Amino acid sequence: MHREVATSSYLTSLMAIFFLWYLGCLIEPFFVSGTPPTDDGLCALMGGDTWFLNPVNESLGFILADYGFDVWVGNVRGTRWSRKHITLSEHDRAYWNWSWQDLAQYDLAAMLGYIQNETSSKVLYIGHSQGTIMALSAFTMPDIVKMVEAAAFLCPISYLDHISSTFVHRAVSTHIDEMLLSLGVHQLNFRSSIGVHILDSVCDGHMDCGNLLQGITGENCCFNASRVDYYLKYEPHASSTKNLHHLFQMIRKGTFAKYDFGWWGNLKHYQRLQPPAFNLGSIPESLPLWMAYGGNDALADLTDLNRTINELKSKPELCYIESYGHIDFILSVNAKNDVYSDLIRLLCSREGTSSS
């Protein structure tokens, strides 16, 4: 089933898989999986189909459906499945005037609201990479977090100043985000000729991009490399250059904050010179959180993650796998046993509470 949801003039999509039978302890919980664009390495360029790219017995979306969950898969604006707008075309510059901040405040909020209205239940949320930064910021907003029963984060990111990705460091140091904006390139699409040229300019003569995935995400131990060509039929999706710029701002400044428009722009948007930081301490202590992270992840760095955890009021349950990289948590052939079994345990523990 496919549904379009209006989010601040954008029409984003939700895909749902419904099963009429239930297994084990799972009676009526609902699950929303958000991997909104995954980013040029921060997984801001991936769509909701990422949850289903592996075989049925290895893909989290299918596994949860088999356990009896109603699985709702979010696709934020800019992805292949969410390109509509009430008045704008994807060819318009204004269409791409957004960052993950808007995805959290509008897209995620609208999806959660739609699911809650359809089911009369709170939502069990799962996100990977950009899906986690969206959630962590959105959950600081009382009107959004009240719709969530519990949240599970794979490769959680908020602070980004300790990432070790060689490709991202190179892109940040060359200010490629600012260069693209100044040239009027507002859609970031690595399937386009401009996108390929961007990749070449970052790599050429400066770093070995023979294994670009590893250069971006770190070494991944356990996904099936023979399926890369298959994955590339679906990924990456497009995102906005402004989204990339916002992420790079955070890397340069070491902040978890709203988009920096510059002094005058900040005064206009925020009535202050600097963009406001997201207060992780305002996420309710009562919200159950679960986080899975890996020792080889070049994007979700352990130092940054510890800073995030220390600012939370609650103590999230943690699942650490030393050998896992950024992509392993969604595409590893072993993730069902290594990661998802513990995740499903958390969801089972919330069974029956989401409808209260």
UniProtKB/TrEMBL annotation:
Span of domain AB hydrolase-1? 64-156
UniProt entry keywords in alphabetical sequence = Glycoprotein, Hydrolase, Lipid degradation, Lipid metabolism, Membrane, Signal, Transmembrane, Transmembrane helix
GO molecular-function terms, A-Z: hydrolase activity, acting on ester bonds
Q: Which Pfam families match?
A: Abhydrolase_1
Q: Which top-rank group of organisms is this from? A: Eukaryota
Gene Ontology biological process terms in this record: lipid catabolic process
- Which Gene3D superfamilies does the entry mention? alpha/beta hydrolase
Q: Which InterPro entries match?
A: AB_hydrolase_1 (IPR000073), AB_hydrolase_fold (IPR029058), Lipase_euk (IPR025483)
Catalytic site positions: 129 (nucleophile), 297 (charge relay system), 326 (charge relay system)
| Recorded coiled-coil stretches | none
Record's family? Belongs to the AB hydrolase superfamily. Lipase family.
The protein's name in its UniProt record: Triacylglycerol lipase 1
- This chain's source organism reads Platanthera zijinensis
